[in-house]
Specification:
There is one protein chain. Helices cover 27% and strands 24% of the residues. By secondary structure, the protein is α+β, with helices and mostly antiparallel strands. A hairpin with a 6-residue loop joins strand 7 and strand 8. The longest helix is centred in the N-terminal third of the chain and has 24 residues. Bound molecules: 2-amino-4-trifluoromethylsulfanyl-butyric acid (MF3) and cobalt (II) ion. The site of cobalt (II) ion has 5 residues, from loops. InterPro entries: Creatinase/aminopeptidase-like (IPR036005), Pept_M24 (IPR000994), Pept_M24_MAP (IPR001714), Pept_M24A_MAP1 (IPR002467). Its EC number is 3.4.11.18.
């Protein structure tokens, strides 16, 4: 499938999908407390998304059973919410969520510290968030995908962290996953040339230790092979001729 360029009408719908998702993320962040189950967070997100007349796009995606992926500590992505999984003080919790507004998708992830976490954990969360913005210095018409990847990877590796290789970002629009794939690491391909009107979900997944990951027996949850902590940060981004527009960052200045 070719990479799509969105019209002004489509961009307006994606802005609204992004705005509603940023509200959902802000509410999940407020609610996140020790003693809650991951299913509690999932229920809250689904309720908010539906209250805006939107549809949670992860639910039933290739059989995925929930509206949010909730991945704790050494879990990288795609953790499945459960009534039995209780959030603890000291955990780092990645919340990955998306919604559909009038046929258009949004997708964003945040990693939060629950109560007091170690200095190392805090640093990992901040480096992961900042790596996204390092990549965004090259998210502009005329650069290539590899420029974004290089921005992310050099920043992360200079600080001694590693970039997950087995999972990548993606184009987004009428489908959750469109072309192109968007790696967060440099490969021999420079990738497509960016053009105004492309909408991309850029999502660095960063490990405290080594980059290899493996899958649990639930066939969804991805964990670090070495058991080290992992964090995730993602936004749906509109490419323009100038600065990128972050469709899933709300008006309020977000800490993470
Ligand atoms: N945000 C994830 C991504 O970008 C989607 C999760 S997969 C799902 O690929 F099955 F949970 F939807
Ligand atoms: Co995504």
């Amino acid at each position: 499938m070719a990479v799509t360029i969105k019209s002004e009408r489509e961009i307006a719908l994606m802005r609204e999908a992004g705005r509603i998702l940023s509200i959902t993320h802000a509410e999940m962040k407020k609610a996140l407390k020790p003693g809650m189950s991951t299913k509690d967070i999932d229920r809250l997100a689904e309720e908010i998304i539906r209250s805006y007349g939107c549809i949670p796009n992860f639910k039933n995606y290739h059989g995925y059973p929930a509206s949010v992926c909730i991945s704790i500590n050494d879990e990288v992505v795609h953790g499945i919410p459960s009534d039995k999984r209780i959030i603890q003080e000291g955990d780092i919790v990645s919340l990955d969520c998306g919604c559909i507004y009038k046929g258009y998708h949004s997708d964003a992830a945040r990693t939060h510290a629950v109560g007091e976490v170690s200095k190392e954990a805090k640093q990992l969360i901040e480096v992961t968030r900042q790596s996204f913005f390092e990549g965004m210095k090259y998210a502009k018409e005329g650069y290539h995908l590899v420029d974004i990847a290089r921005g992310i990877q050099e920043y992360v590796e200079n600080l001694g962290y590693s970039v997950v290789r087995d999972l990548v970002g993606h184009g987004i629009g009428r489908s959750l996953h469109e072309d192109p794939q968007i790696p967060n690491f440099v490969s021999r391909r420079r990738g497509i040339r960016l053009q105004a009107g492309m909408t991309l979900a850029v999502e660095p997944m960063i490990n405290q230790g080594a980059y290899p990951v493996c899958w649990l027996d639930d066939d969804w949850t991805v964990v670090t092979e070495d058991g080290s902590l992992s964090a995730h940060y993602e936004n749906t981004v509109l490419i323009t001729k100038g600065e990128p527009e972050f469709l899933t960052i709300g008006d309020e200045i977000e800490q993470n």
